[in-house]
Amino acid sequence: MSLRVRGIVVFLVVAFGGTWPCLFLARWVMGWSLVNPLVQLPVAMMPALGAVVVRRWVTREGFAAAGLRLRLHGAWSHRLLAEAPYRENWHHKSAIGESGGAIQPIPGRWRLERWTPGR
User: What does pTM read for this prediction?
Assistant: First the structure.
């Protein structure tokens, strides 16, 4: 089996082999709803975990050439041009919209008691 095929197989095994047991455990053993964010978080992270496992231990590529380096110096003008025509007062809304997910728990818009098990 070639290295590429082995990487794909390991990724699929980690991604699906980790997702389905989490779902079965949460639903039938713990009795939680699959809409619960505590169930969805590990399920959403399994493909990322599979990618890390493949790049680090299977193909031994590492992360230096993965294209993850932040390139703000050359990309900021393109971002401004992409956002400007679609937003009125775009510089204010962009900052508010990007921080919206971080500030929702503060005023109580996202309540954890709605997602507790057994309800």
Answer: 0.58
